[in-house]
Structure formats: C-alpha cells, structure tokens
Amino acid sequence: QVGWYNAVLQPAFHLPYPDDTLAFVVLSTPSMFDKALKPFVNKERLKIIRDPVDQCVSHHLSRVKEKFPDQRVDIMFDYEMLPSRKPKFLAQTAAHVAGAAYYYQRKDVKLDPWGKKKIFGVCIHPKYGGWFAIRALLLFPAIQVPFLEQPSPVDCVSTEEKRIELLEQFNFHWQDGRYRDIIEVKERYSEEQKAYFATPPAERFRLLGLSQ
What we know:
By secondary structure, the protein is of the alpha+beta class. The chain is built from seven helices and five strands; from the N terminus they run H-E-H-H-E-H-E-E-E-H-H-H.
C-alpha cells in the first residue's frame, strides 16, 4: 500500500495517491544481466541506446503495462527526478516497507561510532545480500487494497557488530563491494557484470559491443 510508504516519510516525499492504493517494488536480481540486459542490447543494437540498463528496465516494464490494457498503470523509475531535483520516490524506503529488502540505517545501530560524519543507509536482501538493485515502482491507481497485510523485511544483518561493519563498508569502502557480501548470498553478479558496473558509464558501451 502507498500508505505504508507515506507513513514513514515527510510530506514532501509522499506519493500523490490514496493510502490503500496498490503498488509493487521492482527489483533486479543478479541474473538480470544475462537474462534481460544482454538480449535487449543484441536486439536493439542498431537503435540509439543512451543507458542500456535504464532502457532495458523501461522496455520490460512497458511490456508489463501492456498486460493490463484496462488498467491505469503508473511507472516510476529509480533514476527519475521531480522538477525540485528530489527523486520521484525513495527506492530503499519503498523496498523496506514492501518487505522486499531491509533498509539498514544509522538509527539501527545503538552505539553510534561515527560522530558528526554523514552516514548513508543501504538495503540488504535476505537472498542476494547487496547483489541486487531497486529499479522501479509500479502503481495501480484504480486498485485499492485496504486489507493487504504489510510484510516485514527480513532482518538478515541482526547483530550490532555486523550492522556497523555493513555501514562502514558501504560508506567508506563501497568501491570494493565487500558490503554486498555482509551475509552469505545465494547468487552474486558474474565477473562480467561486476566489470560492467565498475566501468565509468561512458565506457560501458564498448563492453557491450556498442558504439557510443
């Protein structure tokens, strides 16, 4: 329900829908790279591609939308901004309230060791750890689900020590990706996928065999 999301945020970030409106959070798992991105790039090779991942996600979600010809389906992507430069939705908060992944933040640590430092939170998935991404929201404005029960996200980083380690690694050593393996994971990015996301965006086209 949209109301679960709005209830934990300041009004400036609220989604403009009734509280019991149905919404889905869309995640991409590690296999997205081989199962969706590479086939999409091969198919679209002769067209202009600005951002392969964003356009791949948009393509697949537009196909989902086509499955509901009689419904209004609103899609918000994780990279979209409002004119105020605020994101259209806060992806990690949405994932947490939907029960998809646990959003670990500074307030989840009792004995805070960081003083005045700015500490950003991070979502961890119980199966994929940090090897996943939150891509979009699908909203169904005409569908109200007042009796939907809110699922709790799985608290898979449950000790104080591990939470501190997670936030330390994410905030100060995110480039090495160690935070993604804070728990034992069932699946992680392939070496090819790691190389792709570690490459500056302008140089990624070459990795996919595209001319920029």
